[in-house]
Amino acid sequence: MISFKELKQNLKKEYSSLPTRKVALLGDVATQFLAVSLKGMGYERNYNIDLFEAEFNQVERQVMDPTSDLHEFEADYTVVFQSTHKLLEKYSHTSPLDQIGLADERLDFIRMMCNTVKGRIIYYNYPEIEDTVFGSYANKVESSFVFQLRKLNYELMKIAQENANFFICDIAGLQNKFGRNVGFNSHIYISTEMVLSLDILPYVASRTLDIICALEGKFKKCLILDLDNTTWGGIVGDDGWENIQVGHGLGIGKAFTEFQQWVKNLKNRGIIIAVCSKNDEDKARAPFEKNPEMVLKIEDIAVFVANWNNKADNIRFIQSILNIGFDSMVFLDDNPFERNIVRENVPEVTVPELPEDPGEYLEYLYSLNLFETASYSNADAERTAQYQVESKRVSLMQSFTNEADFLKSLNMVSEVKGFDSFNTVRVAQLSQRSNQFNLRTVRYTEAEIEALENNDQYVNFSFTLADKFGDHGLICVIILKKLDASTLFVDTWFMSCRVLKRGMEDFTLSTIVNYAKEHGFQRIIGEYLPTAKNNMVADHFPKLGFSTIEGSEPLQFELEVGDHADREFYIENK
Amino acid sequence: MEQTEILAKVQDIFRDVLDNEDIVLTPQTTADDVEDWDSLSHIQLIVAIEKAFKIKFTSKEILSWSNVSEMTESIAGKL
């Protein structure tokens, strides 16, 4: 971890050109060093932290007074640090009869704060001070300080669940990791009223910025694993799948078992797991498929790359399948040489400096907090399956030299139908979200889609697409307006980018033309309304054989139905 | 360790912590003589000196020094 001294030096650097985030800092102890650390860590994460530091011990006043400097400042993030020290002081000033209400009183204030403070609140929870007034018996005494403190930390989590803009920065967790003797320095406290040591400050600032970055959309999505001596002990190519070190019992195997359990928990949370190993592929796969001690199974791995190419290229390949930023990837490898190759060639990828001893992997990884997140839903957990399907498709495509043969081999099937009660929600959702492949970017709500179902001036089509690897569901929508008895206008044409380059556009046009022919329409008019994001389809209609209507503004295109001949496509109508 | 040796080591720590290679300490130097040596950087210096010499000051000592020689004497007394 970077030192406090280096964070302080960052303040002298040029960071005014970085994106600015307004952060307010409220503390009931002195916060000068914390302020320096937050600004310095902001620089490390490429933010210019515009910091408002409230005067010492003004948390309540700043929050409750609507005309205070805090409210004036309009922070994006308000960091609130109410210390355990001050809480203990308050407890000591409270009459013994009222001490039982200490946690509730503080919680009331925090709930009120959630309603008053605009922007997001990052609240530091309470590292424990065990005052030993009751000893361990404090756990039986509700009015003890230890009992109140633990209750407070527990109830804070409930407030966080109930308030979308309230985030806890788990500095109690940091103290669990590093110990109170590291986290608190009595010299600093005695001479400055600050309760965080110089050694812990960079970690506290880092955990705070982790939350801000996650909320700003910068977070890790994928963990790429080396295999030999990273995921298991030993070399599978030399030792064989049955002799690698993994599994409980005496020895180093349990370190790898527990490492794999951690990876599995990440996968279950929605982190994509990929493998990048220098091995023959069949040998690398064997432990996943045959060794009963392996916690990770082949179905946990979204993309499996085992070959003798260099790892930087393999990571680029993994990126091309997942289509996520390199800066959202973490690569773990025990070999310093491989780590450096990846750092030099793909510098955006995070490459932790794993300790030499596998027994220390986990505690080291815990300390990095690599996978901070700003949201969680059950859908996150299903991601692996989707990427596995995409990975199979890409590896099949590589085995064909000719695109048509590849498309044929996919056995694609599309179900075409109008709007109905089953697909209204998805049609409306796609209409809100499609930006790139969207010709006119007209947004429809569910109610408007329902209205279209019953309006005979409009013809609607929805398309699904499935292939031998999996089902994409509903991926394309067409809304045609009958301009007159012979002319159809393409009011809406949007498609999910997941199904680009499958011939879906030709299949869709064929569907429209067939409808026109069957119902006596002779002309189809298309229109392109440019937006910041839909440049991809600027030439959509000309590519499909439409001719440009000279002088039209916005640009319009027409197709004589009689002149149209289908281009070849390999999608069956279900 | 001789007082002069201690002074040289302390001077290195000052230069490092205050990020200023021009700092020269004498036994008579006080906080007023060194740019950026304020109550906040003082605590950074204390923590760095404790680590470098592997010693622990008492809180009373930290608050009592009036110049560099009193500081180096405290250090010498603990080595």
Automatic annotation (TrEMBL), chain A:
Annotated Pfam families: FkbH_N (PF21211)
SUPFAM superfamilies assigned: HAD-like (SSF56784)
Domain BF1531-like N-terminal: 22-213
Coiled-coil residues: none
Record GO terms (molecular function): hydrolase activity, acting on ester bonds
Protein name per Swiss-Prot or TrEMBL: HAD-IIIC family phosphatase
Lineage of the species this protein comes from: Bacteria, Pseudomonadati, Bacteroidota, Sphingobacteriia, Sphingobacteriales
UniProtKB/TrEMBL annotation, chain B:
Domain of life: Bacteria
Protein name: Acyl carrier protein
Carrier domain sequence ranges: 1-79
Taxonomic lineage from the root: Bacteria, Pseudomonadati, Bacteroidota, Sphingobacteriia, Sphingobacteriales
